[in-house]
């Protein structure tokens, strides 16, 4: 079980590092929009806003690694799909 969690964490790090284009340790709305559009996973402002609301647990306007990892744990198939597209 611990090995599976480690694999999920590595997968999440890959996605997070790809989305965090300015490498400031958080994913902004703009970075999320750009990444989703590039992956063909939603490009409308409403889709990005909805995804941000869903992942940004503390509502600070940014997605932290921990928030993305929590989202991945809740939606493993979706995150695997994203990771496979990178």
CATH class of one domain: Mainly Alpha
The count of β-strands is: 2
Q: What oligomerization state is this entry in?
A: single chain
Q: Roughly how many Å apart are the termini?
A: 25 Å
Secondary-structure content class: mainly alpha
Strand arrangement in the largest pleated sheet:
1-2
Broad shape: globular
Protein name: EF-hand domain-containing protein
Organism: Cannabis sativa
GO molecular function: calcium ion binding
Keywords: Calcium, Metal-binding, Repeat
Q: What is the topological layout?
A:
Elements: H1 2-19, E1 27-28, H2 29-39, H3 45-55, E2 62-63, H4 65-74, H5 76-85
Antiparallel strand pairs: 1-2
Helix pairs in contact: 1-4, 1-5, 2-3, 4-5
GO molecular function: calcium ion binding
Protein name: EF-hand domain-containing protein
Keywords: Calcium, Metal-binding, Repeat
Provide key terms for this protein.
two-stranded antiparallel sheet; EF_hand_pair_protein_CML-like; 5 helices; calcium; Recoverin, domain 1; mainly alpha; 86 residues; metal-binding
